[in-house]
Amino acid sequence: MGVLGAGVLALAVWGAGAQAVLTGLGESLHAVPVVAALEGLFLCFSVLALRALYGEDAARVSFRQWLRAGALGYALGAVLPLGRAAAEAARAVLLGRSVGGARAAVAAVQIQGVTLLANALLSMLAAGAALTLLGIGAISALIFANAVAAAVLGAGILVVRQRARPGRFLGGLSKRGRAFGLQFDAIAGASRNNLLLSSLWELAARAVIVVQCGVALSAIHHPSSAGTTLVARGMLTLGSALGDFIPAQLGGTEATLVLGASALGLTAASAAALALLIHGSQLALALVCALVTFAVPAERRVVPPVLELGPP
């Protein structure tokens, strides 16, 4: 999959004109610190969204552990296939040392649903902007389809976790899996108020990346209206979803923007430079997060109180 992603990226850059793309990217490098800083703010809001789901249990996790979990999750999510799922799994492993594995797993599942619903709202706004600016067409339809898919998946994850008791299916795997599944189902998870607070943090994070997209557009000498910026961000979100199975999502956002460049009033080279500027800033932040993960000392596992489940 990594070879496929590299091939898609190379094809997108070659099709847009490699020399023109590199020139545009070079002229926009001054914006990397700002774009990366905004990505860092996005990460902070995302970690706060996860913390909100822990409710009172959040206080059992030290700041140092939250820092390591946030950094490790971002670093892995930026380079692995199915990055968000990998990120939350890694965070659950670290945070589970303080609150217990089942409690951390519940929060990891719920944040997936909250994140998808936040993406759905952003994509819906982008689809509305695309429909207003471009009319009915492939771009507005694809962004809208991504919004619907994210909404269905996000709501489905939250409903299944709350009502279907999915942990019981782990019982068929092993005795340990059965015990973990019983704990997973027994944990209530986040309250409605905590789910709402988490959603607000994730929506704040989406506002940050819309601003980030506007900064990146200005950096490639294409300052845009709020509507055009929303459409561009919606296309980037669509590209990320399409490239989710590719390591580091190589080529996903770049190819999507290049194909839709004319609708945004961009040349193919400018569209590729825009995607590479944002993608490169994300990878730069991922490197910093990897260094933070190794630099910050790990904490000892804290054994949580035993959960009384009663007889099977």
Q: Can you walk through the features of this model?
A:
The structure is a single chain. The protein has helices spanning about 1-15, 20-25, 30-55, 65-80, 85-100, 100-135, 140-165, 175-185, 190-220, 225-240, 250-260, 270-295. Helices cover about 75% and strands about 0% of the residues. Helix 4 (about 65-80) runs antiparallel to helix 12, helix 6 (about 100-135) runs antiparallel to helix 7 (about 140-165) and helix 6 (about 100-135) packs across helix 9. It contains twelve helices and no strands. With about 300 residues, the protein is an all-alpha fold. Residues about 305-310 have low confidence and may be disordered. The longest helix is centred in the middle third of the chain and has 34 residues, at about 100-135.
Number of helical elements: 12
Terminal residue distance = 43 Å
* Total individual domains: 1
- What is the residue-mean pLDDT, rounded to a whole number? 84
**What is the makeup of the main sheet?**
none
Quick one: how many beta strands? 0
- What is the beta-strand fraction? under 5%
Q: Tell me the radius of gyration.
A: 20 Å
Uncertain residue ranges: 305-312
* Helix content estimate: over 70%
Shape: globular
The chain-level structural class is mainly alpha
Order of helices and strands: HHHHHHHHHHHH
Describe the SSE topology.
Layout: H1 2-16, H2 18-27, H3 32-54, H4 63-79, H5 83-99, H6 101-134, H7 138-164, H8 175-186, H9 192-219, H10 226-242, H11 252-259, H12 268-295
Helix pairs in contact: 1-11, 1-12, 2-12, 3-6, 3-9, 3-12, 4-5, 4-12, 5-6, 6-7, 6-8, 6-9, 6-10, 7-10, 9-10, 10-11, 11-12
